[in-house]
């Protein structure tokens, strides 16, 4: 939660950031094809911007995750850092064309990918809406030839597809800011990473 602002009667613009699109199913593409989530913005007496989550790692080659509000997990390349005071870094790559680390969450780093896909970092719990809820969990890391799927972090993170399952990674939960899970390695037509969950803006008025 941000610090309280003094607001007069009027209209204030709110932008809810969209979740980033998952990478394609072409596992031999040398580029990182996932996309960062969009920023969420509250334009009050001073503008508050929550940076969108980082894109996940590719399934092959030197394709680590991309930095964002919370960082994407690593695959071969290093894990991406999260934005200061907003999120944590992704987990590290296990090496040997095995499993990628999980994406960072709002309250914890992603778990390293060692033999299995790393779990996404947990999100942060807040009671600003009246009851305790957890938002912005990291997506689970995927595996190349063997290994179990990485689970999503609490707070809407998507679970990855298992190695060679031919399945698409689980999407982040809508309006949670949760990261998406990684796709499988097989060249199936629908095995890319899931899409990130759209963001959430909660404003509490104190009178």
Task: Tell me what you see in this structure.
With 207 residues, the protein is largely without helices or strands. It is built from no helices and 5 strands. The chain has strands spanning 13-15, 40-43, 47-50, 124-126, 133-135. The strands form 2 sheets. It has a 3-stranded antiparallel β-sheet with strand order 1-2-3, with no helix packed on it. The chain is elongated. The two termini are 18 Å apart. The model has no long low-confidence stretch (mean pLDDT 83).
Features:
207 residues; little secondary structure; three-stranded antiparallel β-sheet
Total beta strands: 5
Work out the helicity level.
under 10%
For the largest sheet, list the strands in their spatial order.
1-2-3
Cα-based radius of gyration, to the nearest Å: 17 Å
Strand content: 5-15%
Spell out the helices and strands N to C. EEEEE
Low-confidence stretches: none
Could you give a short account of the major beta sheet?
Answer: 3 strands, antiparallel
Tertiary shape: elongated
In short:
With 207 residues, this protein is low in regular secondary structure. The protein has strands spanning 13-15, 40-43, 47-50, 124-126, 133-135.
Topology of helices and strands:
Elements: E1 13-15, E2 40-43, E3 47-50, E4 124-126, E5 133-135
Antiparallel strand pairs: 1-2, 2-3, 4-5
């Amino acid at each position: 939660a941000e610090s309280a602002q003094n607001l007069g009667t009027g209209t204030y613009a709110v932008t809810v950031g969209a979740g980033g699109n998952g990478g394609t199913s072409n596992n031999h593409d040398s580029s990182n094809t996932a996309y960062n989530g969009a920023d969420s913005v509250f334009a009050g007496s001073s503008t508050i911007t929550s940076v969108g989550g980082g894109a996940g790692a590719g399934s092959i080659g030197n394709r680590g995750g991309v930095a964002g509000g919370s960082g994407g997990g690593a695959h071969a390349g290093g894990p991406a850092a999260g934005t200061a005071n907003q999120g944590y870094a992704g987990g590290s790559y296990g090496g040997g064309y095995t499993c990628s680390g999980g994406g960072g969450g709002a309250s914890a780093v992603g778990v390293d990918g060692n033999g299995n896909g790393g779990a996404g970092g947990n999100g942060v719990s807040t009671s600003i809406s009246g009851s305790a809820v957890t938002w912005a969990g990291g997506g689970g890391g995927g595996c190349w030839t063997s290994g179990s799927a990485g689970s999503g972090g609490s707070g809407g993170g998507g679970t990855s597809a298992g190695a060679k399952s031919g399945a698409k990674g689980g999407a982040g939960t809508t309006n949670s800011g949760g990261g998406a899970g990684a796709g499988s390695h097989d060249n199936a037509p629908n095995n890319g990473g899931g899409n990130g969950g759209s963001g959430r803006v909660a404003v509490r008025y104190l009178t």
